[in-house]
Amino acid sequence: MIGVVQLSFLKNTKIDMTKTAQKVKDFFEHDFDHYLNLSGKHRSDLSSPQMDITGITAHNGINHQDESMAVNIDADNCVLAVDHTISSCSNSGDKPYGTILYLSYIKNISNYAIAQRLGYQTTRYYELKNRALVEFAERMELYRKRDHTSIEDLRIFEDEQQGKFQKRTMSEE
């Protein structure tokens, strides 16, 4: 019965595409470098097919009294989750989402150069990039849990925004 409730919840929940895409952009522009620095990794570490995490996980080998070590392990897991998420994104001819994300946020190639490389006009490229950002947010939900990270949910739902507006309206009255 719980599975049925979850499925109906997912069915009635609509992601705000614009706000979710912006939240993912903000994550890459503001948070991701911080995780890279704390983990001691570089963007080039994500270019290899298998990221070496040296066998350390959030469950083994943590000295809970050493907060600095825990922060570094969490950061390492965050970088790993980003790597897993980008690798799992659609990457076909009509949905080159993984490529767009990788070139844009890992290789730091300009949007113009990526659009040219993929053969898209600017408008079409930005449409695909926004879809890639939303897919990243949806897929990150699995990897942030699987890789035991502190990354917050990057999705924004339309219901949440309406609920916040309604709460503010009620309290103002």
Morphology call: globular
What's the β-strand tally? 0
Query: Considering DSSP H and I runs of 4 or more, what fraction of the residues is helical?
Result: 55-70%
Question: What string, H for helix and E for strand, traces the elements in order?
Answer: HHHHHHH
Number of helices: 7
Q: Nearest-angstrom radius of gyration?
A: 18 Å
Class from secondary-structure proportions? mainly alpha
Mean pLDDT across all amino acids: 79
Strand composition percent: under 5%
Distance between the termini: 39 Å
The main β sheet shows up as: none
Q: Unreliable segments (pLDDT under 50, ≥5 consecutive)?
A: 3-9, 48-65, 165-173
Count of structural domains: 1
InterPro entries: ArpU-like
